């Protein structure tokens, strides 16, 4: 045993030497591990930006620009200093960081404007660091906000064109590894070329200049009349391209706080249905003339009211209009005369024609949430219903559906599909979509369309639409005043005022509708509320010579 002991000691010594070699050469030093843990934070996804949205002339409406995002490393964060950020962050954000945090990475605030980020960094709070991200920016602010839409904090489309064309505009985030050097500074290990890879783009039919004019006068008119809501749509009747679409109240997609209010982000042009009132009369009268149920020379008698089955229809002109022709009915907006036209028309035929005009059916425009409206089936048209429909009651439509109908009158009888996207390109610059004129149906003969064009010109010259008349260009159109229905009954004191028309009369290049919902001051009728707004828009477009584009 004593002879073997030295060999055992030698063997043990050899084992210890080998273990030390393995420990030094193969296993990391705990101090190195600790240091590495202090230098490594996380791998995070960083927004690299979205493709641009432009108007028809190339003006940028939505683009991506550099911004600053801030994060916290809980290892170095002192929660007692959270209150120093109170002037710069929301109360709920302050509460979240006022307690001990776990892990090595937590977002503090993302995609801040440089001034705000600089104020936070000047506080020199331990554990707060800054990195660069791309931020969605809307150069026009509120301009065409309901058309363009908005994105979430990670640049995914949530509404409008941003949502509908997300597959083209969205650019996947890039992974970024966050490291600290020996001095404790943040190392950017994401190559710069990854932040500028190719993106798709979308060019709209919207003209930013017309959009600005439309939005300005809509806001002024809605505020002047203390309205609840409003919208204006301007289209080219020759091809269906939407030149402007404004909704009020509006929002600024740059201000994320406003995105939580549905009453601001709702697009009244397509997401709201209403009874059109007298702006519907040209549609019904046109189909009555087209189908031969009424001739232009036929006379009706208006005594101020008419009893139809279980109801009565009254005229605003209490004394009545006397003998009226179809032209008189449109120019004077005679309810009694129009009701008699509605009674003459076969219900099934009228229903079928209204469907052919696109009522009760979404237009298919490139925006989500479009309402279809409602035209009840003819089996339910009992009693006073046919007469009510003739004067624009008992039907629910969208402003876009009606302006498209007026476009058909203006262009000689062709119902077109309205569209908003002129072109779309993928990340490789390849054309993936091109908007174009699409004829859905011929709803009127050229002769009937021409007759109605003349009637609508007379509405402005000597009828209810006199306040829409312009000294710069010849305008044609129709006023509308509708009551607001709720629970099957009309609410007292609530109305929708509207004016739909087109210009120049001899060669229409623009068709437009102005709808003001629930005005409380300065009148409630279409002729006194909506018509002047229509005229102001027409005058500014004409004075700007945009009609020559």
Key attributes of the depicted protein:
about 550 residues, alpha+beta, Beta-lactamase, 7-stranded mixed β-sheet, about 30% helix, elongated
Tell me about this structure:
The chain has helices at 5-25, 30-39, 91-96, 114-121, 145-148, 160-164, 166-169, 208-224, 262-265, 281-290, 326-332, 335-344, 347-356, 385-390, 399-410, 446-462, 526-543, and strands at residues 40-46, 53-54, 60-72, 106-112, 128-137, 150-151, 157-159, 174-180, 186-188, 201-204, 229-235, 242-248, 300-302, 305-308, 311-314, 322-324, 414-416, 421-425, 431-434, 439-442, 476-486, 489-503, 510-517. 44% of the residues are buried. Strands 2, 3, 4, 5, 10, 18 and 19 form a seven-stranded mixed β-sheet that branches. The termini are far apart. The protein is an alpha+beta fold and 549 residues long. The protein folds into two domains: 42-204, Penicillin-binding protein 2a (Domain 2) (Alpha-Beta Complex), CATH 3.90.1310; 208-548, Beta-lactamase (3-Layer(aba) Sandwich).
Nutshell version of this structure?
Helix content is 31%, strand content 25%. It has 549 residues and is α+β, with helices and mostly antiparallel strands. A hairpin with a 6-residue loop joins strand 11 and strand 12.
Oligomer: single chain
CATH class of the largest domain: Alpha Beta
Please count the beta strands (DSSP E, at least 2 residues each): 23
In whole angstroms, the N-to-C terminal distance is 111 Å
Write the SSE topology:
Blueprint: H1 5-25, H2 30-39, E1 40-46, E2 53-54, E3 60-72, H3 91-96, E4 106-112, H4 114-121, E5 128-137, H5 145-148, E6 150-151, E7 157-159, H6 160-164, H7 166-169, E8 174-180, E9 186-188, E10 201-204, H8 208-224, E11 229-235, E12 242-248, H9 262-265, H10 281-290, E13 300-302, E14 305-308, E15 311-314, E16 322-324, H11 326-332, H12 335-344, H13 347-356, H14 385-390, H15 399-410, E17 414-416, E18 421-425, E19 431-434, E20 439-442, H16 446-462, E21 476-486, E22 489-503, E23 510-517, H17 526-543
């Amino acid at each position: 045993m004593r002879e073997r002991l030295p060999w055992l000691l030698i063997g043990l010594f050899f084992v210890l030497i080998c273990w030390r070699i393995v420990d030094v050469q193969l296993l990391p030093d705990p101090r190195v591990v600790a240091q590495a843990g202090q230098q490594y934070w996380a791998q995070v996804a960083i927004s690299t930006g979205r493709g641009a949205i432009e108007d028809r002339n190339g003006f940028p409406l939505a683009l991506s620009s550099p911004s600053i995002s801030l994060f916290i490393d809980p290892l170095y964060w002192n929660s007692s200093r959270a209150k120093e950020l109170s002037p710069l962050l929301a109360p709920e954000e302050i509460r979240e960081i006022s307690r001990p945090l776990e892990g090595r990475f937590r977002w503090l605030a993302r995609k801040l404007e440089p001034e705000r980020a600089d104020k936070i960094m000047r506080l020199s709070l331990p554990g707060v660091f800054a990195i660069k991200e791309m931020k969605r920016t809307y150069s026009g602010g509120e301009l065409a906000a309901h058309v363009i839409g908005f994105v979430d904090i990670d640049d995914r489309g949530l509404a409008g064109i941003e949502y509908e064309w997300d597959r083209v505009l969205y650019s996947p985030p890039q992974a970024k590894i966050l490291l600290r050097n020996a001095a404790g500074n943040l190392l950017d290990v994401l190559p710069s070329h990854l932040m500028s890879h190719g993106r798709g783009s979308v060019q709209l039919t919207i003209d930013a200049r017309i959009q600005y004019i439309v939005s300005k006068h809509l806001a002024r008119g809605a505020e002047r009349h203390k309205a609840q809501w409003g919208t204006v749509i301007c289209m080219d009747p020759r091809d269906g391209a939407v030149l402007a679409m404004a909704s009020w109240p509006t929002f600024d997609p740059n201000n994320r706080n406003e995105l939580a209010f549905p009453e601001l982000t709702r697009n009244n042009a397509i997401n709201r249905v209403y009874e059109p009132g007298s702006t519907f009369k040209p549609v019904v009268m046109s189909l009555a003339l087209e189908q031969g149920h009424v001739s232009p020379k036929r006379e009706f008698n208006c005594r101020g009211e008419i009893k139809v089955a279980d109801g009565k229809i009254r005229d605003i002109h209490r004394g009545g209009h006397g003998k009226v022709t179809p032209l008189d009915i449109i120019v004077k907006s005679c309810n009694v005369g129009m009701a008699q036209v509605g009674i003459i028309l076969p219900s099934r035929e009228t229903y079928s024609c209204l469907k052919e005009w696109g009522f009760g059916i979404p237009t298919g425009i490139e925006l989500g949430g479009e309402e279809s409206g409602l035209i009840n089936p003819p089996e339910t048209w009992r009693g006073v219903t046919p007469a009510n429909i003739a004067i624009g009651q008992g039907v629910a439509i969208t402003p876009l559906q009606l302006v498209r109908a007026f476009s058909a009158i203006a262009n000689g009888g062709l119902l077109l599909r309205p569209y908003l996207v002129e072109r779309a390109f993928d990340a490789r610059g390849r054309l993936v979509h091109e908007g174009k004129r699409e004829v859905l149906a011929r709803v009127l003969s050229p002769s009937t369309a021409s007759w109605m064009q003349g009637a609508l010109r007379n509405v402005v010259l000597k009828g209810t639409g006199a306040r829409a008349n312009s000294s710069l260009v010849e305008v044609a159109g129709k006023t509308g005043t509708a009551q607001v229905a709720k629970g099957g009954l009309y609410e007292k004191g609530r109305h929708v005022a509207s004016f739909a028309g087109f210009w120049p009369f001899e060669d229409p290049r623009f068709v437009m509708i102005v709808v003001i919902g629930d005005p409380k001051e300065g009148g409630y009728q279409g002729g006194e509320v909506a018509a002047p707004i229509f005229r102001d828009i027409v005058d500014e477009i004409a004075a700007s010579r945009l009609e020559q584009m």
